Amino acid sequence: METDPDPGTEQYEKVAKIGTGAYGTVYKARDLKNGGEFVALKRVRVQTGEEGMPMSTIREIALLRQLESFEHPNVVRLLDICHGTVAEKETKLTLVFEHVDQDLHTYLEKCPAPGLGPDRIKDIMHQLLSGVEFLHMHRVVHRDLKPQNILVTSNGQVKLADFGLARHYSFQMALTSVVVTLWYRSPEVLLQASYATPVDIWSVGCIFAELHTRKAIFQGNSDIDQLNKIFDVIGTPCKEEWPEEVSLPWSSFQPRLAIPLESLLPEVEPLAKDMLDKMLCFNPHRRITAKEALQHAYFVGEEAVQERLQEAASSRSLTENTFETSPEK
């Protein structure tokens, strides 16, 4: 491919088209000013009004720049932002990211039988949750976590990609079957209810299950079908937990009981199952957070958790004794 003709991107020579999705077209390219190292160019179209680029887009770019300054090992690096051509009601931007050859979907496809071992699954999950916790700590909700948006380097490092863009940018790009997949969307998103950071934890839980079987745990073909696939596993929630003012009433779904996750994931370890249960919780307010998950016994071990609980109990006891023995003023 020839060097990109768009203004501001002359230093990048496109090598191959990686893919087209809801948020833009991605190319593999060489950075001609930095020794020809490979980068990923993400072409996006931003809707503009009479007053120019919307403030939401400007805020999002500033946020991406802020996140990049931390250089988190589990978030793909944003190297540059190039402003391209400006047309009527539309501005083209090119986001330049570090290039990683494969995503988690490809990584799992290439994995030889019988699949990933428990130690590798634990390593991937810890890296994934570390990246998610970093985003949530900076008030960024990914909203589209799935194996295709998680990159895996040649040395096994996991990096989140395509984060934060869906919240503000509006694109006129053709949707592909990969992009519109429902399989990792949380119940509150499927019901069009209000949502926050727990939506990402649901997606991580779906990915966690997939690491064990190498196939998606919930494979629906519509919003209603996806919800039914979810309720077939976790059970239909009680009416009191059903969110108000949503697209589908609670009565739309047949009542059913939850099934043990180990029946679907026979190789899952007890502690892994416990964490997965806490991730695939219908009520987002009761769903485990990324920070809590990283402190779960699955990662730190049951003994460490018990020691922590004993230390907390001792600390509370010491505080109570201090108040009891304090002399009155």
Automatic annotation (TrEMBL):
It is found in: Cytoplasm. The keyword Transcription regulation does not apply. Its EC number is 2.7.11.22. The lineage of its organism: Eukaryota, Metazoa, Chordata, Cephalochordata, Leptocardii. Its main location: cytoplasm. Gene3D superfamilies: Phosphorylase Kinase, domain 1, Transferase(Phosphotransferase) domain 1. It comes from the Eukaryota. The gene is LOC109474285. One of its GO terms (molecular function) is cyclin binding. ATP binds at residue 42. Signal peptide: none annotated. Pfam families: Pkinase. Keywords: ATP-binding, Cell cycle, Cell division, Cytoplasm, Kinase, Nucleotide-binding, Phosphoprotein, Serine/threonine-protein kinase, Transferase. CDD domains: STKc_CDK4_6_like. One of its GO terms (cellular component) is cyclin-dependent protein kinase holoenzyme complex. Residues 12-299 form the Protein kinase domain. This is cyclin-dependent kinase. Belongs to the protein kinase superfamily. CMGC Ser/Thr protein kinase family. CDC2/CDKX subfamily. InterPro entries: CDK, Kinase-like_dom_sf, Prot_kinase_dom, Protein_kinase_ATP_BS, Ser/Thr_kinase_AS. It is an enzyme of class 2 (transferase). It catalyses: L-seryl-[protein] + ATP = O-phospho-L-seryl-[protein] + ADP + H(+); L-threonyl-[protein] + ATP = O-phospho-L-threonyl-[protein] + ADP + H(+). GO terms for biological process: cell division; G1/S transition of mitotic cell cycle; regulation of G2/M transition of mitotic cell cycle; regulation of gene expression; signal transduction.
